Amino acid sequence: MGEGALATARLILRPPVAEDLPWLLAAMNTESVMRHLAGVRTAHEVEEGLAADIAAFAAPDGHRRWTVWLRDAEERVGRVGLFHLRSPAAPPALQGQREIGWTFAQSHWGKGYATEAAEGALGFAFGMLGLPRIWSQTSESNAGSTRMMHRLGFTFRPELGYVDPDYPPQDNPTTVWSLDAPPRKP
């Protein structure tokens, strides 16, 4: 499976590699996938972002953005990651905290892959990293992610919502959610 990879019932979450770039440009950097993430990026921005993801994976406290593959078909379907929340617009209580995020190619929406991949990443966050809480953010305009946060057990935290100038008015305010680690078994 490879170092840094995670497995779920139907998916393998693999560290990013340079060979992901053509797929990122073709399947992930689209209007539909990026519509709640400030829009399509230039090819150079996507390439820089991938290089940063690869470098961060090698750093002890770097973020983790896995490329999600179908286990049986050896096909990329999306990305899921654990990041340090760094938006300058976010409240001070959120700065530097760990958050989870996901994006999936439109052809793979509605199949439960995002939820399954997020559960794998959350297991890593709470288990391997020992984090007490994970945050997530979206906007009311992103109904799919909001539903997924409910499914995963996240709690809406309206007192931490904020306006992020990096996003258009229809994707503001940013809504904030949290999920506490499950109790440890003795």
Lay out the secondary structure:
Elements: E1 6-7, E2 11-14, H1 21-28, H2 31-34, H3 43-58, E3 64-70, E4 75-84, E5 98-104, H4 113-127, E6 133-139, H5 143-152, E7 155-156, E8 174-180
Antiparallel strand pairs: 1-2, 2-3, 3-4, 4-5, 6-8, 7-8
What ranges have pLDDT less than 50 throughout 5 or more consecutive residues? none
Oligomer: single chain
Mean model confidence by pLDDT: 88
Largest sheet data: 5 strands, antiparallel
Q: What's the architecture, going by CATH?
A: 3-Layer(aba) Sandwich
Order of helices and strands: EEHHHEEEHEHEE
Number of helices: 5
Number of domains: 1
Task: Tell me the Rg in angstroms.
Answer: 16 Å
**How much strand?**
15-25%
Under the CATH scheme, which class?
A: Alpha Beta
Please name the fourth-level CATH homologous superfamily. Gcn5-related N-acetyltransferase (GNAT)
What characteristic shape results from the CA principal axes?
A: globular
How far do the termini sit from each other? 30 Å
Strand order of the largest sheet: 1-2-3-4-5
Describe the structure.
By secondary structure, the protein is an alpha+beta fold. The chain has a single domain (6-180), classed as Aminopeptidase, CATH 3.40.630.30. The chain is built from five helices and eight strands; from the N terminus they run ββαααβββαβαββ. The chain has helices spanning 21-28, 31-34, 43-58, 113-127, 143-152, and strands spanning 6-7, 11-14, 64-70, 75-84, 98-104, 133-139, 155-156, 174-180. Strands 1-2-3-4-5 form a five-stranded antiparallel beta sheet, with helices on both faces. It has a three-stranded antiparallel beta sheet with strand order 6-8-7. The protein is globular. The model has no long low-confidence stretch (mean pLDDT 88).
